[in-house]
Amino acid sequence: MASGPPRRNGQKTGHREAAAQVPAGYTWSDYLDALVKEHGTLAAVAWKLVERGLAEDTTSVERALRRLRGRGQRDGGLIGQRLLRVFGVPATVEAQARWMGTYHSPFGDLPVRLCLDQLRLWERPPLSESRARVWILLGLAGVALRQRAFDDARTLLEGAAALADAPAARIEHHLATSYLLTRLDSDVKRAEAAARPHLESARSILDASRAELDPTDAACFQARLVDHEAFDANRRGDSAAALALYRSLPTEDVHPFASYRRDAGLAFGLHRMGEREEALRLAQTACEHAGDGGYVRLRVMGLLMVARIQGAPDQARTLARAAAIANRLDDPELRIRIDRARERG
Q: For residue range 243-300, what is the model confidence (pLDDT) as tens digits?
């Protein structure tokens, strides 16, 4: 029998196989390590579970926790459910999930495939068995909207609705749903009527929870609400109302995303009013805000606004820049916007 290739010194049989089996992403072992770091020992974690009504002795619970360490990203069973119910997920982990699920974070400006790969790594236990899963579902819905996979987006948003309890998650869900509903119906009045309850809910939650929201999140949510309301006004042909909405936003630059939404909206409104020079200045400023915040998709949208105002011959060169970025991001929604801009000429 022919022998295999010579084994390198120090290489032990099974190392490659073991390495291949190590889960990529957040595991039960990672979760338990975080709990031990917070509470001191695994025994202390077990004791807290018993204190909260787990009808077993601490030694048995500790053994179950040790077995859970080896579950990787598989179902955590009853002990995993109890852990998540008692302790929740670590704040740093929830913050990571929230970053991936919030539209106004730069995560949503990454290439579509990269966003999907990252979200799918987190759509597994233990995170998928916790309420923090809402952010992963919202992130996946955002990617589906970028892909114009509206049926998928609807299903994901329906799943997120059942988990959205924190104000930020509820606002995010309502804003994403309102965006989806305006894309499902070409009739302006029907689309606006379908989206309106979600916009009103988002505004009500935002007004009631400003004190507990991060100020930058609150500013971005406010800008997104205004942007959607102005979008509806522009579709009705009420450019003056849309412009007034953008002018109602704070003039200070709290966050690049909010500043982009304000200045891009003002640029569009002023362009419609015939104030070309100021409109072009604001569109270019909006592009700068997008760049400052690391928002590549917003920069494409800003370039589309610049091109609209420029007209020929500069328009073609600006659209080519926007198209090159959209292709690198593999973003179907951006490509359609660019195609429409070219058709307008």
A: 999 999 999 999 999 999 999 999 999 999 999 999 999 999 999 999 999 999 999 9
Residue 287, domain member (yes or no): yes
Does residue 4 fall inside a structural domain?
no
Distances (CA, A) of 221 to 39, 164, 218, 228, 275: 36, 16, 5, 11, 28
d(CA 132, CA 127): 7
Range of the domain at 330: 238-345
**Distances in Å between the alpha carbon of 181 and those of 145, 148, 200, 220?**
11, 12, 14, 21
Q: What contacts 275, CB < 8 A, 6 or more positions away?
A: none
Q: Is 9 exposed, middle or buried (0-12, 13-18, 19+ CB in 10 A)?
A: exposed
- CB under 8 Å to 12, separation ≥6 — which residues? none
The tokens of 9 are what?
């010194």
* 60 and 95 assigned to the same domain: no
Tokens of 101: 């699920």
pTM: 0.88
Identify whether the C-beta of residue 117 lies closer than 8 Å to the C-beta of residue 330: no
Q: What is the token pair recorded at 238? A: 């009420």
Q: Are residues 262 and 272 in the same domain?
A: yes
* Residues contacting residue 237 through CB under 8 Å, at least 6 positions apart: none
248 DSSP 8-state letter: T
Q: Would you say residue 124 lies in a domain? A: yes
103 Cβ contact partners less than 8 Å away, ≥ 6 residues apart: 142, 172, 175, 176, 224
Contacts of 82 (CB under 8 A, 6+ apart): 49, 52, 54
Q: Is the pLDDT of residue 197 over 70?
A: yes
Judge whether 89 and 127 are in contact, CB under 8 Å. Answer: yes
